[in-house]
Amino acid sequence: MKYLSDQMLIEVYHRAVDLQLDAAFIELLREELQHRNIRITQFSA
């Protein structure tokens, strides 16, 4: 994860949610977002 820019991490997170990927993977992304102190607004598209 350390090789992803903040913007790319956000994009990957949103894409994973949109595609309803594995919950464990989405949680891993959430944890990395929290670690980087990045807050995102969750929404349904």
Automatic annotation (TrEMBL):
Note the InterPro entries from the entry.
Sda (IPR015064), Sda_sf (IPR036916)
Superkingdom of the source? Bacteria
Q: Does the keyword NAD apply?
A: no
Give UniProt keywords alphabetically: Protein kinase inhibitor
Q: Which GO terms describe its molecular function?
A: protein kinase inhibitor activity
Name the Gene3D superfamilies for this protein.
Answer: Sporulation inhibitor A (1.10.287.1100)
Name of protein? Sporulation histidine kinase inhibitor Sda
Its source organism is: Brevibacillus porteri
Q: What is the lineage of its organism?
A: Bacteria, Bacillati, Bacillota, Bacilli, Bacillales
